[in-house]
Amino acid sequence: MGLDVVHLASQGDFPQLIAYFSEIGVNLESIDTKGLTPLHWSSYMGNYYSSLLLCSLRVSRNIIDLEGHTPLHLAVIGNNLRVMKLLVIKGAIKDIKDIQGKTSMDYAIANGYKNLIESLKSNTFLEIMGFRPNITPFATSLWPFIILMGIIISTFVIVGIFCATYNRRGSYTFAASSIIVICLMAYIVKSDPGFVPKNPNTKLIDLYNNYKPGEICPDCGIVKVPRSRHCHQCHRCVKKFDHHCQWMNNCIGAKNLGVFYMFLLILWVNIIVVILLCVNIFISKKEDNDGDDIPQLASWIVAGLFALIELFMFFPVSLLLWTHTKNFSIGLTTNERVSAGRTTKKSSKNCCVNWKDMCCNSSQQEDRVLCSNYQSICSENLEESLHQIK
Fold this sequence. Notes:
By secondary structure, the protein is mainly alpha-helical. The chain is built from 18 helices and 6 strands. A two-stranded antiparallel sheet has the order 1-2. Strands 3-4 form a two-stranded antiparallel sheet. The two termini are about 25 Å apart. Keywords: Acyltransferase, ANK repeat, Lipoprotein, Membrane, Palmitate, Transferase, Transmembrane, Transmembrane helix.
């Protein structure tokens, strides 16, 4: 069949060997007699860790074999959901057709693989807007942040002008909450969510010789810390990873999770205040000696328009606030609570302790303890890895 050592390592799911062959310069995109690359084989066999390593080493995700199959085709044919999701995240094109004119979705439908069909569907409106997690990562962009900031600032200016003469106390509350929201947004965009530091001198072969494949992030070339996850939009591992917020163009993790919750809470209050101010315009008259010449009809039109905008924002923001309130109470991140196939259990601590743990940043001392724990299991993992290779 024309198989070489990398093909065999991919079939047997030995990322340790693949890392070694990469280190000595062996071609990771070699093809056998059927045109299959190592990534084709690991995808078809459902070997997640080999597929992850090959993708991190920048092998082609969309190369086709003699039948026109990409690795994504073979992952779907083999009903390997986890590998299929990995390939999509890593940029595999879902619309490539084989020599029979079939896409990956066609094979999923033909075989009745419901989970794969759901994962291969195009992103919904809620996913595009960032209100639901999505599989396909978007290119990082500041446009969602600019749009959201523009809505808040325009609401702050326009509603402030038209509502101040109807309810000055409410306008002051709205102004204060808007300023706080804008400041929190600016902080979250520029903040470090808890990126796990990289060591440029670390070699993948050394990591795989000392740790289990599931403890390694080959993209970052590091050993994972508990509760961390690699963000495929920031291209970094994040401690206590919650989610990647498209509106902030940043991850939400250990170092900004509490600030993000505060942002959601004050934004929610701000939206309610705007709605109440708009309602107040319809049921009240201007205060005497208000000093402006704005017609009441114009105020009604502006109030109606912004009431609709704020109502549109109220429900998704309320859902996000409720979700994170529930997460904080049980001591889990969004990623831990919704990740498929993960058996994460609720924290056994009481609610108040969970809130403190979720809001407070990881200390340097905790990081040193984690590092020490990994070093203590180094020798045990080395023996197990060598045994698997043999």
